[in-house]
Fold these 2 entries.
Entry 1:
Amino acid sequence: MSKKDASARPEARLPKGLFDISAQEIRATGEMLRVIQGVFESYGFEPLDTPAIEYTDALGKFLPDQDRPNEGVFSFKDDDEQWLSLRYDLTAPLARYVAENYQNLPKPFRRYQAGPVWRNEKPGPGRFRQFTQFDADTVGASSVAADAELCMLAADTLEALGVPRGQYVVKVGNRKILDGVFESIGLNSNDTSKHLAVLRAIDKLDRLGVEGVRALLGKGRKDESGDYTKGANLDAKVIDSVIGFVTSDELPARGAIGEEGRAELAEMDRLFKASEFGNDRVKFDPSVVRGLEYYTGPVFEAELLAPIKDERGQLIRIGSVVSGGRYDGLVERFTGEKVPATGISIGVSRLLFGLQRLGSYKESASQGPVVVLVLDRDRIADYQKMTQALRQANIRAEMYLGESGMKAQMKYADKRGSPCVVIQGGDEKAKGEVQIKDLILGATLTSIENREEYLKKQAEAQFAVPETDLVEAVRRVLSRHQA
RNA sequence: GCCGCUGUAGCUCAGUCUGGUUAGAGCGCUUGACUGUGGAUCAAGAGGUCGGUGGUUCGAGUCCACCCAGCGGUACCA
């Protein structure tokens, strides 16, 4: 091919924020999903799946405009000119589903759902443009028992995934308490922009500390890189009051709304205590905000407490791995009818990322297939037959399908992580035998100095058996390496 | 979006400050020593638009400008 052709070829590359998923990761994720599913099932939730694509207007607030239809969400036009989008979470599709099937669903409706979601935004460490969420929601229950249960579910799930107690925490807050605070400091609830600015500032408490939040509530803040963030411009006295509130352990309530929120948290606390979920698992934290305009009552999030480092040993923060709360307005968007709902979402991709970084996630090493070497090309049928015999004995096996010689076939088997290979050349065929070579045992041979021991091990690692004993012999080798 | 850092072989990087013949290392890859036998050892080999474009210069991986990409922070985050 000429150079000109080369420049016309597409570059093999992956869009940013998106990743190929290797065999190992598929196995790890699959294992994780099964564990989560087991816990969710045990809580009585019922599975549901919905498509990756929804009508954009059903997804909510990110309606594509003419110029930038893909802000935040990936969107495209159907051939009937209607906007479609890739879902950006599993909650909006749930709301659509409930609204669409309201009559026939048992109320409260409790479902779990797992699947990829997409966000068209800048990726960061532990932040991707496609990631997997695992959600559980209860729709049609206004009792905070539903909320409390989700917090317990979050804690139970993390422990089931191997996060030791004490290395995570589920933090619980309540938007009503914050609303009470806003009321008491005279923040007009119509002034949403200031409202949001204050909420955002509070949300950053754990990251920026008290002084950072103070700056954001006041004139604004400059970060280490020199970027400047505009503040909420509150009076010093009001700032003190807000800071006093979010740093308090007491959750003091202000006003009628605040009192309502406090009562809800007290009720949740009672439920936690009754089921023996102590402060080492679930903790009240006034700075938990989440979702800004979205949540209407209790809000919760879980995070990993152990410090997480990147490849270079630099500390990185991946944020919360589970988040949720009560949203009483979502279904109403469709039906006009108020339907109370509460849910949590586990960031599976992020959690897996975090657990892997912590090294606390043990991936079960998976073994490659037994490889039947092809030495005499004209006897492929024989090799295929041996392979089938192994498969029928429930042994993962394959015949070498490449074109290369024996050495390359051995390398191939090695790379595949094969426990052993089956060898039958002309000599063995004449004797009606096959050779079994144990690659795992064989790998230990090079380190043996003592000649006698070496020979002994080598005889163990590779041996001949009658053709009829093939399956039996392979089984014996496999059993050597069972964990 | 804003700020900062980094772009040299498949990977990790040296070389850039102080411009000068064919641009290096380790790992990986291919082949061979090796008997029909992976992993060890030794040897050979393949592999590079030095992120891109323009400029300065007799001469640019090296200096300058702009652009692009990646990473990190920050903003936004249902």
Entry 2:
Amino acid sequence: MLEKKRLFEHFASAQGLRSTRQRDIILDVFLSTHQHSSVEELYLKIKQSNPGIGHATVYRTLKLFAEAGIAREIHLHDGQTRYEQTTAGEHHDHLVCTSCNSIVEFENATIEKLQEEIAARHGFLIKNHKLELYGLCISCRK
Amino acid sequence: MLEKKRLFEHFASAQGLRSTRQRDIILDVFLSTHQHSSVEELYLKIKQSNPGIGHATVYRTLKLFAEAGIAREIHLHDGQTRYEQTTAGEHHDHLVCTSCNSIVEFENATIEKLQEEIAARHGFLIKNHKLELYGLCISCRK
DNA sequence: CTTGCTGCAAACAGTTTGCAGAACT
DNA sequence: AGTTCTGCAAACTGTTTGCAGCAAG
């Protein structure tokens, strides 16, 4: 958490970016928020402490966070961009409930390894991946 | 291919849908087109044989195909909806080249099984899944 | 004081919708 | 004839961009 702030500060100064009130606030809210927030959710939360803020600033700043490596964009099937905190460099994937929209994360090393094998078989170099399982979570199955 | 047409006809009559020139054309083009076409690509192709066609009709009709079970929507990271033909009921996943946008399909039964295991562990019922590996294809790696 | 950042509004891209007229059945 | 479908244009959603003024260095 604190280390994320330092990471961003480092990135910012390396890029000659300025430190502004808005960026601080957006960073605080982003770090304190549950995972997978949509831009709109973050925007509304940020607005509470900083009423005059514009959508554009939030969009621009989240994009910066992604460049700085402290946030990762995720795209689910609902046409909204979400951001999650990067957790120390490894992938995790998502179980997405299509009924209540809850999201559970998981990791599976075997799947990762299989992906690499498949890629290798095709001469493909993986930069990134996305695995999402859509369905009903335990409480929505009834 | 022919059986897809029958499938759609069956669906259409069951739903009380009408058979129209546009739907026939869109179906023909869709079935004859390489996989993973974006709506715009399909629209442009359809326009050749049917100049006056509107975007809306293409969008509406592709959605119908998806409901009828002969097409499947896919969403890559570029903000466009694509459609692919459903191939006899099973999943396949995608290797997406971020440089030339080529798409290679693959299937892996072991990954599928692992997904089920993970879901079971969370009491989750999978309806659908999405696995995409982004990176550089063999020719773009140089 | 210089340059980057913000907020606003307008622009955009992809998709959806309302509606009058056309076309199936 | 009755109703669904089409094409058009306008509406919509999520996101980006241009720009004048503000603020950090």
